[in-house]
Amino acid sequence: MCFQLLSWGYKAHIAAGNMYLYDIVCDTGEHLLRIQVKSCKTARYRSSNKRRSYQFHATNGRAARYKEGALDIMAYVALDIGQIIFRAGVPDKGTVRFSQEHMLGANSRLDFELCLSNILPQTCPKHAPV
Fold first, then answer.
1. What three-state secondary structure class fits 86?
2. What pLDDT, on a 0 to 100 scale, did the predictor assign at position 18?
């Protein structure tokens, strides 16, 4: 995850210890962003919609949901295919799902840039939506 951000030209650092509600700090040059990473090993078949999907528990490890403002970006990593989906802010639900097709078609860099444009629209014009 840090390597991906570094390869895009951002400064990224792992937040040390378990005292933070986020895993990575990303320096955009103007702001420090708090990123929480959630991972899933493989997609699972869901009989309710007859599709394979990745399921992420968007809780802080104590089964408590994140509070608004606790972090800036959530990163959802599908480990088996090496794909990342970024979303700005805190999720509305404690469980987040993405279909396998959605994960396979994800453009991680575009997702991250869109998150930046949602978070920093006034202060970071180079990340304005296209």
1. strand
2. 73
In angstroms, how far is the first alpha carbon of the chain from the final one?
A: 25
List of E strands, the chain: 11-14, 24-27, 32-40, 44-46, 51-57, 73-78, 83-88, 95-99
Percentage, residues of the chain above pLDDT 90: 48
**Domain residue spans in the chain?**
2-127
Residue 106 to residue 120: CA distance in whole angstroms: 22
pTM: 0.85
Lookup: tokens for 119: 């978070």
Domain 2-127 has CATH 3.40.1350.10: yes
111 touches 84 (CB < 8 A):
yes
